[in-house]
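As promised in the previous annual report, we have extended the structural survey to additional targets. Below is the entry for D-threo-3-hydroxyaspartate dehydratase.
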Amino acid sequence: MRLDDVVTPAAVIDHAAMMRNIARMQTRMDTLGVRLRPHVKTSKCIAVGTLQRDAGAPGITVSTLKEAEEFFSAGFDDILYAVGIAPQKLDRVLALRRAGCRLAVLVDSVTGADAVVARGRAEGHAFDVVIEIDTDGHRAGVDPESTTLIDIGRRLADGGATLQGVLAHAGSSYGLSTPEALAQIAEQERRRTVRAAERLRAAGLPCPQVSIGSTPTALSAQNLEGVTEVRAGVYVFFDLVMANVGVCRPDEIALSVLTTVIGHQVEKGWAIVDAGWMAMSRDRGTQSQAIDYGYGAVCDADGRLVDGWIMLGANQEHGILGRRADGAERAGEGEGEGDDDVARRFPIGTRLRILPNHACATAAQFSAYQVVDTAGDVAVWPRFNGW
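The corresponding structure token record, generated without further manual editing, is:
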């Protein structure tokens, strides 16, 4: 099959670009002397995860138990569920573990730890548990200097659980855009997570695993002393948010949405395509960054950027393409510059590809990827959604 045969809209993976992204991250982690545990929430695709494992990443990170179940069924047995565990989900965790899956769960409170321990004691089973550490005030986690950290560790050591280590995610790195700032937040993430591990060990508690990571900090860290593994996800595809952060170029983005021009509003300079927010998602992650790409950046059918053209607006099944206003730092909602040549430049039936703001969100709109190789041949790789 060729791209011309693919019904639009469709999620397209540039296979060669993806392989370069996989190799780049794996090589960097190998050089820094830590294990890479890719976050498969980005692709939710067994074929993609297999390529990451084949490159040298033995374990994976998941954001849903659905991911854990699907990947375990495909032969992945070293899995970290990096979202705080809800007590009601422990039955599924237990089923996976009793089937042979080395699945670890996450807590960041004494109450959460007590729930895991109580279920473990009732089942005569010791769950593997990691404590989440807050290193940047971005989201969840325990302060590495808090007494709560030690309290959680002691609860987990009382039976019904095995304390495996600590975990942090410097999500605030997504709001940065200079190498200096990224290196600083990467070092802060490392230092504070290692500090949490040291405090647990000083209290006589085990802490074999020190897990940190985000794509920006993984690619910006200069020193990972005391860290055992790094988690990163979106690097496998990259996206426009990551391009604005500065850890990739737009031409390194491996995921795009194939779409077809279906109409024009010539006086407004618009081309109308058959990919709206149901294809691109509503994620406007670049809106607060230096370059606002609207709902995505426009490329030709071969994936080459069409300079200055973005998806200005999106309805459910319609996308509005137009030029970004010269010098503008924001993309208007449906506001374009007049372009009398828009119909000539993008005739009805023209195939285009749109680079996404957030690869995870855009990929989630589809049940399969159209994977195109350097010869232009297309293979279909299934993906899954759900929790």
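Residues 179-202 form the longest helix (24 residues). Confidence is low (pLDDT under 50) at residues 327-336. These points will be discussed at the next consortium meeting with the crystallography subgroup.
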